[in-house]
Amino acid sequence: MKQELTVKDLVQSLRSDDANKRTDSWLSAGEVGAQAIAPLADLMVEGELETSRAAKRGLWKIVRTIGAPGVSAQDKKAVLEALEGLLTSQTDVAVRREVLWMLSEIADGEMAKQVGSFLTDVELREDARCSLERIPGPESLAILKGALDTVPDDFKMNIVQSLRARGVEVAGHPCQKLVPGKS
Fold it and tell me: Is the Cα dihedral 127, 128, 133, 135 positive or negative?
């Protein structure tokens, strides 16, 4: 009979000096679920390099486990809420960057607005844009369309690229690959 892995056991195993134990631990993080997200995010920034990497891999394992077919909507919602809780200014920018990419794997239209709020953050706007490009649905597309009028000029072509990737024709912004350059 397999013993259920607790958050405390997971964190303790990720701090191990034994690489095999760390690997087994992060591979099992999906079993623990939403309650492990905040402790793993803390470990990502507080831990030693290998511990930090293992914690990040554990977070991704949770996201990929929850994104698999057949997972309950309640479990997915709990993970989304835990990830959303990490998108505060008190959270390390590296963690927020990872969370934006994680959301690109499992978020829906409801979460798109939260992701879109980072289009004004110079450190995270590119990650937010890429995440919105990958989040399906009309909400994320509407946010990208609206951003075209509000983002600074140095970021407009990035938004244009995302809109084109989503199948939207954008007039007035030629594709940079087709603009003649000096030879």
Answer: positive
